[in-house]
Write a structure and sequence with these properties.
By secondary structure, the chain is an alpha/beta fold. 36% of the residues lie in helices and 20% in strands. The chain has 2 domains: 59 residues, Orthogonal Bundle (DNA polymerase, domain 1), CATH 1.10.150.530; 280 residues, Aldolase class I (TIM Barrel), CATH 3.20.20. The site of S-adenosyl-L-homocysteine has 17 residues, from strand 10 and strand 12.
């Protein structure tokens, strides 16, 4: 089987260079091209001897993703639809802010969690990505846009903790090979209690973001049929254990759906349930998903009222900025559009 360059450590690339009859430093140069300079072709790797480049082109796979389509919006948010050799497609999103820039990566092609409001859920799970494929999304964005990337958020397609080993390996590669500290990495999950505890023991100071979306088990189960199988009590116990073990503040994501989970009572219940957690709540107003049920984004006044109610209960609240309008789409929609000829609709 051909080796993936992205996904190999510098040590492994040194071993590879040696197997090709080259001195060890050639392997370190190769790592510099792949991870440091985000080189996407062997032609670019001008400091490597032609014979080594030819051997690598023959015996390895690089890059893992190729750009298929791009949509950029006026605020600088850029979505890239990427394709692997087997035809798998994922979205990677570049999000520039004033003092940092993030890439939002996918961990799976599709998703098995079946959340009622989510575009990615529509096609089910095709396959999980390997660590190199997760990391190569960051390298692709960096190379395609010529942009510096300071932060990575695991908030694209798929459930990171359902692809646990590859997700953890990708975080270590980003830290050790790409130079993006785990402190600048956020992992967003539907909330799998055992996997949260396991991640807490990895010694990786990432920020954990848990998608709650409902203050009670019945509604959560309706909205998130797979994740909702774990009770909120057991999930919140795992979150408390997370903050105790890692000593890091975490985030609860709360998708706001008009008339479904946005009442003052539900805000008070949410505040009661998460009371004492070292966490803030990130409110995510719903992005319309074509062909995905009957959900609506609440009006601005309702969003503000919900936030006020949480703040009154002493909870720190943020709201996810709506990015990517009008040309971009909610997570999963660029891919859906390419798969099914759908029209792009809404902001990220
Ligand atoms: N599987 C992970 C990462 C997925 S996407 C998780 O569930 O956390 C990241 C966030 O976007 C999640 O909180 C997810 O619930 C939310 N999301 C999904 N569909 C959305 C939509 N249509 N509008 C707004 N947020 C959405």
């Amino acid at each position: 089987m051909r080796v993936n360059l992205v996904g190999s450590t510098t040590e492994e690339l040194v071993a590879l260079a040696c197997e090709c009859g080259q001195p060890a430093y050639r392997g370190r140069q190769l790592a510099g091209w792949v991870y440091g300079k985000s080189a996407r072709s062997f032609d670019e790797m001008t400091s490597l001897p032609a014979a080594l480049r030819a051997a690598l082109a023959e015996g390895t796979v690089h890059p893992l993703w190729n750009e298929v389509r791009r949509s950029a919006s006026t605020d600088g948010t850029t979505k890239i639809l990427a394709e692997a050799a087997d035809g798998a497609r994922v979205e990677c999103v570049f999000l520039p802010y004033s003092e940092r820039s993030s890439v939002c990566v996918s961990t799976q092609v599709g998703c098995a969690m079946d959340c009622a409001f989510c575009a990615t859920a529509m096609g089910g799970l095709s396959r999980s990505l390997c660590a190199g494929e997760i990391v190569d999304q960051v390298l692709l964005v960096r190379a395609a846009l010529g942009a510096a990337v300071t932060h990575v958020v695991y908030m694209g397609m798929g459930e990171p903790l359902a692809n646990y080993a590859q997700t953890v390996r990708s975080i270590r590669l980003l830290a050790e090979e790409v130079g993006i500290s785990p402190r600048r990495i956020t992992v967003s999950t539907v909330g799998i209690p055992d996997a949260i505890r396991r991640l807490a023991g990895e010694g990786l100071p990432v920020t954990l973001a848990v998608s709650l979306h409902a203050p009670d088990d019945a509604l959560r189960h309706e909205l998130m049929p797979v994740a909702g199988a774990h009770s909120l009590d057991s999930l919140l116990r795992a979150c408390r254990d997370w903050t105790q073990t890692t000593r890091r503040r975490m985030t609860f994501e709360y998708l706001l759906l008009d008339g479904i989970n946005d009442s003052a009572d539900q805000a008070r219940e949410l505040a009661r349930r998460i009371h004492g957690c070292l966490a803030n709540v990130n409110i995510i107003p719903y992005n319309h998903v074509e062909g995905r049920g009957h959900f609506h984004r609440p009006r601005r006044a309702a969003i503000e009222a919900f936030k006020r109610e949480l703040e009154r209960a002493g909870i720190a609240v943020t709201e996810r900025l709506r990015r990517g309008n009008p040309v971009s789409a909610a997570c999963g929609q660029l891919r859906n559009e390419s798969v099914e000829g759908r029209k792009l609709e809404d902001g990220c």
